[in-house]
Inverse folding.
């Protein structure tokens, strides 16, 4: 299996960096081929601007969606973006690893998504009609591949529980897992989340590392989160509202977009 890890932490001596090395070594020990995009080491440009579209005339306004689609179609996006798209196409599994900062990913990783997930590549693809609304949410360029998050969190696990002050970690990660990874077709595995990472002692690290090794050992067989696919009948098109006759049980909020049926 070919695995791409997109890593976002500015400190090479951090816990996050140590866990990244644990994941890489375990995956390689299992015979997998691993590539790492270390965004801070790469000095990744995270803002979308005119420099991303060299073929855009200075006399024309920057309309990101249309110029992104034109740049992808004409193969005129910048080389750094093309290189990351090639890695995504190469990979069987994509891992995003980051510390949870202000309830989301660091800006550099969001900027990687903004620039690499271009129109025509990760969105804006497929037929739009009264029967389907593009190739997205379970379909798309990256369908058939797996993805997961490795997240380090400073707070306690209880703080991110169903009654915790910060809200459930599943809800906090939903925009990333469902909106960024599932949207272009990736099957999303449950995340690996390490809590209280500002207080990890040397004695606490090894049990955490072993838990991560176990996740890497089972990465090919772990069942993905059963998100409902958009064009498979659960949603009304084009309103994209879940059908009234769909039984969601006791689920509310983001959880209604998960099905008890396994993904085909």
């Amino acid at each position: 299996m070919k695995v791409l890890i997109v890593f976002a932490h500015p400190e090479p001596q951090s816990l996050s960096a140590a866990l990244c090395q644990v994941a890489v070594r375990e995956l390689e020990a299992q015979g997998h081929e691993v590539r790492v995009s270390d965004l801070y080491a790469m000095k990744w440009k995270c803002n979308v601007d005119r420099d991303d579209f060299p073929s855009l005339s200075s006399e024309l306004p920057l309309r990101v969606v249309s110029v992104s689609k034109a740049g992808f179609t004409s193969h005129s996006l910048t080389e750094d973006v093309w290189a990351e798209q090639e890695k995504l196409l190469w990979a069987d599994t994509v891992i995003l690893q980051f510390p949870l900062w202000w309830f989301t990913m660091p800006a550099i990783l969001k900027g990687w998504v903004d620039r690499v997930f271009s129109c025509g590549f990760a969105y804006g693809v497929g037929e739009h009609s009264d029967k389907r609304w593009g190739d997205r949410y379970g379909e798309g360029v990256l369908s058939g591949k797996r993805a997961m998050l490795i997240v380090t969190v400073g707070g306690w696990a209880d703080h991110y529980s169903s009654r915790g002050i910060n809200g459930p970690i599943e809800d906090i990660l939903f925009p990333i897992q469902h909106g960024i990874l599932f949207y272009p077709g990736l099957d999303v595995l449950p995340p690996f989340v390490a809590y209280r990472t500002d207080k990890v002692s040397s004695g606490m690290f090894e049990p955490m590392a072993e838990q991560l090794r176990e996740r890497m050992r089972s990465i090919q067989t772990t069942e993905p989160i059963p998100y409902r696919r958009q064009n498979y009948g659960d949603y009304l098109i084009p309103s994209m509202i879940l059908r009234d006759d769909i039984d969601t049980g006791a689920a509310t909020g983001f959880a209604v977009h998960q099905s008890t049926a396994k993904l085909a």
The two ends are 21 Å apart (CA to CA). The helical segments are 15-29, 64-73, 79-90, 107-116, 169-182, 202-217. The longest helix spans residues 202-217. The mean pLDDT is 94.
